[in-house]
Predict the 3D structure of the following.
Amino acid sequence: MESKVANNVCLVCVDGWGLSDKKEWNAIEQADTPVMNKLMQVTEKTCSIEASGLFVGLPRGKASNSVISMMNVGSGRICWQDMLRIDLAIADRTIYHNPALLKAFDTARSKTGRIHFLGMVSDGGVHSNINHLFVLLEAAKQHGVRKCFVHMFSDGVDTAPTSGARYVQKLLDNMKENCYGKLASVIGRYYSMDRDKKWDRTKIAYEAFTQGKESQKFSVENLIAFMEQKYSFPGGKDQSDEMMQPILLSPEGLISDDDTVVFFNTRGDRMEQLVETFAFKPPFETDFSPLNLHVFTMTAYRWNWPFPVLFPLVSMKNVLAEHLAKQGVAQFHCAETERFPQVTTWFNGGVQHAFEKEERLMIPSPSIPLVVSPTVQPAYDLKPDMSCMEVAVEVSEIIAGTKFPFVLCNLCPPDLVAHTGAIGPTIEAVAATDKAIGVIRRACEMHGYVLCVVGTYGNAEKVDASSTAHTTSKGDMLEDGTLCSHGYL
């Protein structure tokens, strides 16, 4: 069915573009942004929007992220998030009777008597929550699983860059108090949570968990002192939690044949690669791969994976992309690699396949070389503009073709460069993003598209090397162009 639209629309979602009156450490205020400044001067077409906490389906006061923001924008409603669902299940203790979790415990008891919990240990609230792990440990003990090992991903992005030792202490205190569980290994999320098909990073994590390969070997008693020493290496050789190289604490805790493995991160996009290596054949050569593993995940990292999920996907109905498809409206979704799942799966309400007449284009993100040495910490401050101009050029060409009444893109440099804590490069990232918006705006003006720009959540408005997490600042929503109708499109 073909359907005429009142307005052709281009929606640009900008990650990390939060609002703040403070100029110090505010890359958005300090950057040269003539395009956004001009758009914001038209006050009747500009508004601020809440972008955190209960407004986006998170616990009160929690900062949002790229997945959550795109789900809310794409569905046009509050999307209650898995993090909150899990918190409620813990509060009413129904998690202790969760069918998939009970199956994991039964499997562990009937096979090797060993269960492994893998995930990020922090209270950042973006990918995981340390309190969820504590409940899993308590439940495993209650259900008589003989041996339990934790493989910790250190954070340093959604929490302070050198706060990992504090979370180690919390975990060890919990294990001591409950006389249960062993911390088997620690590794930075840079290796264990890659999502850009940089399999060399994933391989380092996989071999650390299964072979102890390339791992520094330490006792649990010396771990915190060792991590704190890593934080303060002289001569620029310090190492943050994100980049923490593998540490093996318990050779007994290496993952072996027939073991049960539970991945407890709540957000799936940065878990897919690692889970794939354990659940299926690793896409790289390695000396040893454990056989017959029993894999469980906290949430549905991929809708079509065959293993049990503690909190299955709650499908969203009649999201914008689905509604357009039902009306026969062609749509185009574009982003660079770092944000491609956000403009496809998550904007579409968790649906991974494209809807009818939906076309997609992924622009490669810059390849930042992997350097295992602690002397270098590769990050997007090395190329602050990332691929935002390439995205803008492709989107402009699509607009010029006028084939697609709805065009969606994401620009992510303000967020991902702000995560490095480097104010100078973040200022460059914001300026480059403004130029990219300008390119798209010119195309919209030339070809009669209404341009909508949404700052999805905050980060670049508060750049601090000691705290690189997202903020709870408001975002903004800007419109440029003349709407013929405020009805559908």
